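[audit] Reproducing an earlier prediction to check determinism. Same input, same settings, fresh worker. If the tokens differ from the archived copy the diff job will pick it up downstream; this log only records the rerun itself.
[audit] input (353 residues):
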Amino acid sequence: MVNLRYHIVSIAAVFLALAIGLALGSTFVDSVLVSNLESRVDQLQADTESAIERQAEAEAELGEVEAARDAALASVEAARSVRFEVEDLVRPYLPQGRLSGTTTLIVAPESTDRAAVAAIRARLDATDARHGGVLWLSDDLRLHNSGVRQSIADAFSLAGDSRNAVRRALRFLLPQALFRPAEAGSSQILADDVNAVTDFGALDGFSRGFSAVPPTRTALTLLRDLELVTHDGTGAVALHLLGGEQLRLVVVTDAAAAGLNQDFVFDLLRAAVDDGHSGTGVIVEVPAPGAAGVGYGAVLERVRSDPVLAGSFSSVDDVETFSGDLALLVALERLPAVDHFSGADLNHGLGPS
């Protein structure tokens, strides 16, 4: 027979154990939950403090940017004021109205920095001189290629295509085309220059046939048709109309074109002097593209050490600076007087003659 008291005690023990377990379990869960909640609160607080710090840093950076902007604006305003003062100072020396009646033609190797040439052209276009544009020279004018020499000989009806014969022909014909276009090819000119032309027969075909062809055919247009020169003449005098006593050459070159300078450019300038046209141009050196200034100055050093070139053509360096830009205009205005300017120094010869 089951003892009822024992049965009651057993049931009571079960419920007691269940109650103790629920109590302990509830306490453990509450502890973990509270711990997680406290961690999240701590993290949110840390995030908030970090955001506040970042906001403070951003506000500080904004203040620095605004201060830098204000300083930059002040600097621009100061530079503008200085520019106006400088312009007022040099305005009397600018060749305003004194290039009237002249024509400026830029001559440059094709490899020359196009941006530098464009800047010089823009400056010249702002003067009252007639705009002759830019005559770009191909490196083939060095005449090393026999095919090029043959094409020139054929175009100019030369008797031979040796390098010396072609060079002599160009030395004779190009100064005429540039400075005496109305006389180019006349028998009288040949008679006057017969002592200077050692290869008379090489010139005979072109020169004697020149007056019978359309006036749009000149030595320059023939070289253009052979793709040895390119005329960038937008808004400028047409190539076949270029030339005359009032033509002013602006030769823009760099050290990278040393071969073309030596074999053609300087040779052409000497030929112009031999033809009686000293004091008709300015030689400008610009940095070679991508050369980081390497070799800069070599061209004008070569020009200024050559008695013929130094005595017949002005020169300007640092033309990309304001003072060099001004020196170029003054050099053009002073022609046929020859001057050599260092553009970095405004006091180097600048002022009325």
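[audit] rerun output stored. Observation attached for the diff report: The longest strand covers residues 130-137.
[audit] end
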